[in-house]
Each structure stands twice: as C-alpha cells, then as structure tokens.
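Methods — Computational structure assignment.
A single polypeptide chain was analysed. Its primary sequence is given first, followed by the predicted tertiary structure written as structure tokens.
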Amino acid sequence: MLSARGLLTRAAVIAALFAVCHLAGMREYASFLCGMAPCANGLGSVLAFLGLIYVLAYLSFVVLVPVLAIASGLLWGWHRIDRTTAR
C-alpha cells in the first residue's frame, strides 16, 4: 500500500481521471465557481454536479499528484540507500 510503485500508481490513476474529465468537456460546467449556474433546460443541478466533479479532479491533480510522485521518488531512494547500507 505504501510502496513507491503504489504511490506512483495512485498518482497515475488521479491523472487519468482528470484527463477523462477534461477530455469529456466537464470544464465548462465549473462555471458555478464564479456564480454562474450552468443551465440546460432543467439540468442545472446535474451540470453543477459535473462541474464539482471536475473541480475535485483538478484539485486532486494539482495537489495530490505532485505530492504522491515526490513521495514515491523519496521512498524509492530511501529503500535503495537502505539496501546498500545493509550489505
């Protein structure tokens, strides 16, 4: 669970989820952040929910992916140094 490969895999999954949301065009539904509700004939709440999913995916991509990637590199390096000093 807390291996270098596991952390890097989680970072890749978050990046892939954000890419799917972005390619699906969900960015335009994040307009609720500036007070404009996305309206499409009664689908405003559904579109706002899609916008919320996009915002959460974006924030996860911006905040969590770099942290997980750096932690993965540090953990990999630490295990590598630990193996060489144990000999």
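Note: The chain has two helices and no strands.
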